[in-house]
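Example record

The entry below shows one chain as it appears in the dataset: sequence first, then structure tokens.
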Amino acid sequence: MNFLLLFCSFIVMIIFTVGVKLNQRPSEYGGFGFKTKISLRSEETWRDGNITFGRCLMMIAPLQIAILVITERYLPDHPYRIFTVLAVTTIGSVFIAYLLTQKKLRTIYFKDGKRRPNSF
């Protein structure tokens, strides 16, 4: 097992830790978290955005570990490709998590930040 694989695994664990932090209900409005135009409409949208984005990041981390192990298995002679694969998958998966969180917030909340009736 090479040093670069361990370093990439550490980066993935940091992403998982950020996901855990975002998944916890924040105690105050405005601190560390998922801040977009849609999520800052109200405190409730901000909290739901943080929880959704955090859960997405937590689900992404094990998949990235699996991708790293597969990459190490099939590209052992190209150690810097592991880092490239990690960077591409991280950027892509965070972008997908961002889009899914934004879609959920648009589906659940009105434009003024109030929850739609019968939305979960």
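Notes for this example: Helices lie at 3-23, 43-74, 79-108. Residues 3-25+38-108 form one domain.
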